Each structure stands twice: as C-alpha cells, then as structure tokens.
Fold:
Amino acid sequence: MIDQVELHAVAGNGGDGIVSFRREKFVPRGGPDGGDGGRGGDVTLVAQRRVSTLSAFHSRQRLKADDGRSGGPQQQRGGSADTLIVPVPEGTIVWARDAARADAEEELLADLATEGASVVVARGGRGGFGNRRFATSTRQAPRFAQRGLLGQRRQLRLELKLLADVGLVGLPNAGKSTLLRAWSHATPRVAAYPFTTLEPELGVVDIGYDSFVAADMPGLIEGASQGVGLGHEFLRHIERTRVLVHVVDMMADAPLDAIALIDEELASFGHGLADKPQILALNKIDSPDARAHVELLGPQLKALDRPWMEISAATREGTPELARRTHQLVCSIDELAEAVVAAEIPVLRPEPRRSRFEATRGEDGVPVVTGSTPEWLASTLPLEDREARHELFQRLRRMGIARVLDRLGVKSGDEVRIGDVTVRWDV
Ligand SMILES: Nc1nc2c(ncn2[C@@H]2O[C@H](COP(=O)(O)OP(=O)(O)O)[C@@H](O)[C@H]2O)c(=O)[nH]1
Ligand SMILES: [Mg+2]
Structure:
C-alpha cells in the first residue's frame, strides 16, 4: 500500500546587501560600509523512524524556510536563517520539480531509506553584497548594493510504501479485521487482498497530528497452517512492527487457551515476534457473556503480566483508547531506539555541480548565458543603475563570458539574456 503527497517547498530568500557610508566627525562623507545580507534557510527532509506515515502533510502542504536578514551599516552582516528540518518516514522516496519553470521535469531526488538520511529539497538564496564589496580604486564610493538571491522553489512528490508499526494477532474470528476497520474508518485506505501470497491488510490510524500503521496479520496462524507462503513483504512488515495487539474473543469458551495458543505460534514463527511488547485487546465486551468471562478470569489475566484493555471492535467501545495506548507504546519504543541512532551523522546528498557557464544563441537568435554565477549576478544586481551594470559586465568579462559572446558575434548594444534577465550588452 502506497501513500503519496504533493508538497510545495520554498527556501528562504537571501537578505539584501545595503548601501551605506561611514559617518565620522569632521568627515563629510566616509567610505562605503554597507553590510552583506544573510543566507536564506534551506528546506531539508530527514528520515525518522518514529514517523510512520505521510499523514502530517495532508494539513501541511507548504514547507517554507525563513528569509535571511538584510545587512546593516558599519559592515554589519544580516543574520542567516535556520534550515527548516522536516521529519519524514523512513523509506520516503522524494521526487522534485523546479516550481519556477513551467517546463521543468520531475526528477528522483532521494530515497531516504534509513534513520537520519536527509536531502536538501530547496536551497536558500545567498545574501547580497553590501556596497562596501563593490569599492575599487577607480570607484571608491559605489552607490549600489546587491539584492539577496531568491530561494529555490520546488514542487515535491513524496511516496512511501507503508510498513506496519503495529501487528494485530489472534485466532480466527477474534475480531482483528473488525478492529482494523474501526481504527481506520476515517481514512478508508485498507488494501485489497492479493491471493498468491498472504499480505497483511494495512490501515493508517490517525491520532491527532500523529499516526501509525496497523497490519492485520492473519497469515501467521491461518496461512501458515494452510501452507500458504508468506511473501517477502510480509517479513518486512514483521521486522518493522514494534508492538503487537493481541485480539482475544472473550465470547469464546476458553479465552486463556486461545492466548496461549497464539503465544506458542508467535514463538515458533521466530523473527523476534514473541519478544515484541503486547497489549491484550479483550474483545466483544458488548456481549454479557464476554463481560462475565473477563470478571471470572481477572486474576489469571493479571498473572499474564501484560497490559490489557476491554473493547468492542463492533460497537467501537474502547477502540479509541486502545489506539492511543498502542501509539504511546510505539512512541516509547522509538525513543529508546532514537537514543542509539542519535549519534549517527546524516547522509547528505550533494547537489550536482553545474559547469561555470554556457553561452549560445537561442531559437529567437538572442544570445543566452546560463550558469549559476552569471545568473546569480544578473538577477541580484540592480541593473537599472549604470554602475551596477558596469560591475556585472566586468565580472562577466573576468569569467571569460565576454570572449565567448564576442565569438557569437554579439556587439555593444545587442540584447543578451542571462538566465531570466535581459540586458543590453555594453562593453
Ligand atoms: N459481538 C461482537 N462481535 C464481534 C466483535 N468484533 C468482531 N465481531 C464478530 O466476530 C466475527 C469475526 O470477526 P473478524 O473481525 O472477521 O475476525 P478476524 O478473523 O480476527 O479478522 C465477525 O462475525 C464479527 O462481526 C465485537 O466487538 N462484538
Ligand atoms: Mg480477518
């Protein structure tokens, strides 16, 4: 069963550099001292074992990191924004598309398979330089500064193959399917049964803002005894499962024997199932017979030394409480596990480096320059200012771009496109 959400990731914009001049006593106009802007925050997804579904994103579809701050006078650098860290489940596959370009194609960005794996999905913009940075021997008082670069915007699609946090076990007719339906009725996403191998039936159980995945695992008892093969997927679910809810039919003649039988099956199945913490769900409490059984067997149930709750999967009496209790137990186990993995260093997937620049003639004959540095400069320098334009051309010349444009036959006064910005070439 696959869960999927679409999100919009918006990184923070870089803070603007500012224009400022030193003020000193008796000096009418000091040198430039405008500070640089700070970096905008990145948006980063991090895989966390304690998160088991993408449910949280049904109400949070926009991930926005803060902008960097503008620079100040006296060379004060604007503060950089923090990275927005967004927890996602282990096993989340991340697809991304550049939201700024209509023709951008979706690409596979990351497979966050294990705890701590992370990926930057939208990079924050660089801060702009203050006017101090543009001072040269021939231009000692630049009256322009650079704007911050816009943060990346990306359309994301997250895909997750759901794995069970909680396994429902119990004899046939105990009420496992009924309980799963009662728990996940708000989100009717219970998968259909394939018939070749037994696969557990899954349900997403929402608890406030959090959620867990419960699996009905009839195969353990019903399937194994019929000689039906358990799929590889089934074992993956069992490995992930942290808590078992052991459903007991209290209307049956010998509920204690039923519990013992399941315990034996769990032990003989192996894979650590018998060691997982259990909650007993004493089911069908709506029936007077079942209620009488619970009272009669109270002391023996206590002797089993595991938590139990009385429920009716059919009338849903006690099922929300059981869901909360189960969720708490899952979380407490995750906290133990987290303490162990906390020291691990997250794996960062580096952004592919683009070449410095490319210059060609576009279909309409207008020369086009692409590349992160020229595009950054063209989109952040205030090109309506003559000095700033001059600065841009000088930097492009130093990068060797002027030479390539020259070869393309570009003359002074011709239009040139740098990324999304069109300027009149002037050298
Ligand atoms: N009276 C009563 N019947 C229930 C309850 N839960 C399940 N049943 C019935 O018990 C039978 C078996 O339930 P099912 O969920 O299919 O059990 P499973 O084999 O463990 O999946 C069905 O006829 C259900 O309607 C309950 O809380 N009260
Ligand atoms: Mg069933």
Observations:
- The chain has three domains: 2-161, 166-341, 358-424.
